[in-house]
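Lecture 7 notes: from sequence to structure.
We start with the chain below.
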Amino acid sequence: MKIGLVGGTFDPIHRGHVLLGEYARQQFHLDGIWFLPAGQPYFKEGKKVSPAADRLAMTRRALDGLDWARVCDMELRREGRTYTCETVEQLNAAFPQHEFSFIFGADCLDQLDSWRAPERILAGARIIAASRGSGADHKAMERKAAALMERFGGEICVMPFLELDVSSTLVRERMRDGKDVSDLLPEAVAAYAERQGLYRDDAPEAEKPAADPAAAAAGAQPSFSAVIFDMDGTLLDTERLFIDAWEEAEGNASPALHDALVAIIGVTRERSEEIIYERLGRDYPYEARRLAVDEVFRRARENGTLPVKAGAAQILRTLWRKGYKMGLASSTERELVIPELEAAGLTGYFDAVICGGDAARGKPAPDIFLKAAQAVHTDPARCLAVEDSRNGILAAHAAGMIPLMVPDLIPPDAELRALAAAVCPDLAAAEKWIAARET
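Predicted structure tokens for the same chain:
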């Protein structure tokens, strides 16, 4: 396949970046465009650059709904300085079936001979350089391209491109001054930057908004900028499936078995085994039952019948587009969580996924939630945790998060109601509760 590459610091990614990729795709009949947020660009050293996680999150939101575009985080995962020549070589090694074209603006072409190893870039990828229109500037770029090809080899094509009057610097300046940026940024990107408070720190101290003492005196509940979801029983209706499958495998389910299965909801598989043996005896055929249940879940994933909670996709998409950082904190093992999220079509909404095995202790200990907060670079006190189970609410509270309970199999008792900021009957009500706090 013919793949175009649009790289940049993307601090933030703006409409001009997206338009550049789309125009090059059409003009050169490319099969897709990959956007590569830079890791540690050497030319930005000494300058303030937003965290990689934020730049990646904004890039993903900018490309939402564009079937021809995808995000490649290769440079963000590489340690040390970011050099385009290394990116080209890494891409060719990882994807030998593709032909790559790097899509540059006019300023990048002007600087190409000062980059590290331009000959290595041109040996691994064609360059498509966007000129500012079709006049004298275009002719000058064609001469520059010819000189660079004679010196370094490879292929450089120049395409006319009337850029939008937009730059990341302009976006940052407008946001610093509290001005509207809807004409410069995709809606979801603008919402993310605003909600996460990006670029406000560029303003002088005297210009920064002061804290509202009246709200503090009134004891207003803390706001949140990240939402961490549990998976089983919260987004997927898998806890009911789990119990039904286990009891079917048992053949003669008893109240004692049912109570034991309810007790292992929301805990790690290792702890589940301990609880089953504690309650049902060391001779209970735990492994055989687990294998039978795993087979039921495997078939459900493959057949597309994995039950998704009503309103799950809606609340995730709404919060994602409103600019909240999104995390998943599940006690289930990663090798099961990722396929189940993919089968349910929910994977793309999460900026970070923390699973059983990623933390030292499972719920009700706070470890998984603390890891999730760290992964989305947010103070736990600024995280809303959406949970269905007792163990989940206890873990979220212990982590210092704002627990929101959406009960599944077991209704909350007085203790859980006291710990939760609210108890909502379903995800639709949870979405409304969150929206009410935004007004």
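Points to note: The chain has 20 helices and twelve strands. The radius of gyration is 26 Å.
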